[in-house]
Each structure stands twice: as structure tokens, then as C-alpha cells.
């Protein structure tokens, strides 16, 4: 059974930082576990070994602009930020991995400033005013473009060309549902790996199974040990 593994890079990095917070900016480690956790899907619970078609990793180049913070007035070179250095190193490391294809979108040309959701809620509720904001509470509001489109196109292409019999997607939202429905109509087994995160209600009807191969984040491990998680934990149900 030829299997293609598709990884939403932005989602993977967020979950990786939750699972291994001490390696948050370790690009070599992130590339290593991305490849390892993807390859782990090839072994079926029955012991059957599936064939790897390719691992696709979708992301965007990091922000490399110089921008002036509207509060402090300081010019910040984001090409030297920890995030930019990590992202660039991760992409280079993935290029060296066997059977890995890096698919890059792009960032929006226009970049504004935003703040965290909690701070924004406080502003809306009148608990704080804009005059209370500190310079370090602002960050560039950059958005990825072309990533979801590339995922959808590749899912459709793999299914319609009969290149694989199984697609495993490491992601956490429902944007891929139309492409997943097409793949299933073409007879492709479609499995979601949410990396132990919960998935939107009603999503199960559009996929053939859910399975996570990465370690569970520490907080979820503690909750599961105390019996606070439901019996059918997302990531273990309907394993194929």
C-alpha cells in the first residue's frame, strides 16, 4: 500500500513546541522527529509494513523584514530573530532527508502589528487601554499564503493519478475536508494525525481514521494519568 504523508508545517511546529518545549528552537531535532513520526505511520498495528511514496512538508519562509515597533520606535531585524533562524535551518535540514519534499508558500506582503488574544480581549472589555500597551506586547501580524492550497492540490493530484492508496495528513483543522472527500471517493484511505490535539466535531465522517505517532504533550499525559481524559482520546480512535 503506497502511502504519502503530508505535514502542515505551521501546525507541526506548534505541536512540536508543546511536546518538546526544551527543543523549541532546535531545528535539527524538529526535522529528525518530523521524519521519524511520519515514518512510524508506515507500520500497521498488525505488523504489516507499508511502502513510502513521499513525505511532503508545507510551510512558508520566515519573516525577514526590518520593521519599526510603533510603541518603542526601535527598528527590529526579523531576519535575525530566533524564529527566522529556526525556520530557515529546519527547511535546510528537511531538504537533506530522504524522500522529503519541501513545499513553500509565501507570507503576505503587507505586515501590520497585533497583540495576544488575552491582551486584545482586555482592550475590548475596557480592562486596559491602548496607552497601557508595552512594546514587547506587540508582534508582526503576518499570514501564510498558498500553504492550504498546495496541500489541497497535492491530495487531489495523488488521488486522481492513483499514485498512492493511502494519505496521512498531520494537521489540525478542517480546511482540507473537500480534498479529503475527493480522495476518499477515489478509493484512497485517508487518515488524520492531529498530534494528540482534539479535532473539530463532525470531522470524523470525512476521514477514515485518526492516529498520532508522536509522544503526547506532558500536560495531556498528566491528565490521562489522573483519568481526566475521555476513553476515546483523539489520536487513538479508529486506527487503521
UniProtKB/TrEMBL annotation:
InterPro entries: NYN. Gene3D superfamilies: 5'-nuclease. Residues 132-190 form the NYN domain. Residues 221-240 are annotated as: Disordered. It comes from Stenotrophomonas indicatrix. It holds the Pfam family NYN. CDD domains: PIN_NicB-like (cd18722). It comes from the Bacteria. This is NYN domain-containing protein.
Amino acid at each position: 500500500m503506497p502511502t504519502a504523508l503530508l505535514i502542515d508545517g505551521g501546525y507541526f511546529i506548534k505541536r512540536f513546541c508543546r511536546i518538546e518545549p526544551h527543543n523549541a528552537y532546535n531545528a535539527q531535532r524538529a526535522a529528525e522527529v518530523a521524519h521519524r513520526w511520519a515514518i512510524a505511520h508506515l507500520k500497521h498495528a498488525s505488523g504489516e509494513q507499508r511502502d513510502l511514496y513521499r513525505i511532503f512538508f508545507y510551510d512558508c519562509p520566515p519573516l525577514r523584514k526590518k520593521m519599526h515597533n510603533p510603541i518603542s520606535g526601535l527598528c527590529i531585524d526579523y531576519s535575525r530573530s530566533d524564529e527566522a533562524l529556526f525556520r530557515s535551518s529546519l527547511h535546510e535540514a528537511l531538504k537533506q532527508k530522504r524522500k522529503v519534499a519541501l513545499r513553500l508558500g509565501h507570507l503576505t506582503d503587507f505586515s501590520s502589528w497585533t497583540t495576544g488574544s488575552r491582551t486584545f480581549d482586555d482592550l475590548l472589555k475596557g480592562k486596559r487601554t491602548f496607552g497601557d500597551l508595552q512594546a514587547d506586547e506587540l508582534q508582526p501580524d503576518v499570514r501564510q499564503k498558498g500553504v492550504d492550497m498546495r496541500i489541497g492540490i497535492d491530495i487531489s493530484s495523488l488521488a486522481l493519478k492513483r499514485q498512492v492508496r493511502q494519505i496521512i495528513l498531520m494537521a489540525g483543522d478542517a480546511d482540507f475536508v473537500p480534498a479529503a472527500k475527493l480522495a476518499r471517493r477515489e478509493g484512497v484511505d485517508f487518515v488524520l494525525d492531529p498530534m494528540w490535539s482534539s479535532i473539530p466535531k463532525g470531522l470524523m465522517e470525512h476521514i477514515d481514521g485518526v492516529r498520532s505517532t508522536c509522544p503526547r504533550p506532558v500536560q495531556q499525559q498528566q491528565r490521562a494519568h489522573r483519568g481526566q481524559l475521555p476513553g476515546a482520546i483523539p489520536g487513538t480512535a479508529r486506527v487503521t
